[in-house]
Amino acid sequence: MNKEIAIDGPAGAGKSTIAKKVAEKLGLVYVDTGAMFRAIALFMTERGIVAGELDRIKSKLEDVKLDIVYENGEQQVILGDENVSGKIRKPEISKAASEFAVIPEVRTRLLNLQRELAGKRPVVMDGRDIGSKVLPKAGVKIFLTADVRVRAERRYKELTEKGEIVNIEDIMSDIKSRDEQDMNRAVSPLVQAEDAVLVDTSALSIEEVVEAIIKIARDKNPEFN
Ligand code: DC
């Protein structure tokens, strides 16, 4: 069995926090694929392109120079020669990322990059379609979810801690519309892969979730012990 771990789930379920810790504990590399969709969304919005403009997007996609590098174990997203790891976290980019992610050409472009990264060394990769599409042979697949209110509260805390002025009801409605869009698109929608284990994090602490996933991984693959 391979050592890949795929973690999928809706916005705000805690995927990146959890995936990063699982990767650290098991000595794997963490790959955040949402950051790649965010980078494309940033690239397009900075050029005044919106998700409906298919022809412009297709022609501009060729100009996107996207690199994923690691600094002290942290994934950095480099667009052209700019490190955009901070910029891509803005709420308007979250929304745009979900809109651009419905476009098949955008997904194909990123699928190649995602598989290339996974081909270099064992990864914990998180996103929406990792277990179902990007790494269908991943040895461990987790579908991480939580109640929508809990997810909104977590995102609220995260953003206010960064000094952003946000409203919880707006966050909840953004999360709901992103879920709706991510689950209902034609290509690679957010789904629980058949062989994924469902982990509901609503009532669990970060450490409890990390431990639960490590246990699932060790039960499936003794090499993780
Ligand atoms: O995980 P995130 O919130 O950073 O992802 C931002 C958006 O990118 C998400 O709403 C949908 C899209 N996405 C996707 O379609 N497929 C992935 N594997 C990861 C993210």
Structural notes for this entry:
- The chain has helices at 15-26, 34-46, 54-61, 91-100, 104-120, 130-134, 148-161, 168-184, 206-220; strands at residues 5-8, 29-32, 66-71, 74-79, 82-83, 123-127, 140-145, 197-200.
- The protein has 225 residues and is of the alpha/beta class.
- It has a single domain, classed as 3-Layer(aba) Sandwich (Rossmann fold).
- The strands form two sheets. A five-stranded parallel β-sheet has the order 2-6-1-7-8, sandwiched between helices. Strands 3-4-5 form a three-stranded antiparallel β-sheet.
- A hairpin with a 2-residue loop joins strand 4 (74-79) and strand 5 (82-83).
- 39% of the residues are buried.
- The mean pLDDT is 96.
- The structure holds 2'-deoxycytidine-5'-monophosphate.
- 2'-deoxycytidine-5'-monophosphate (DC) is lined by residues 11, 33-34, 37-38, 94, 97-98, 101, 127-130, 178, 182.
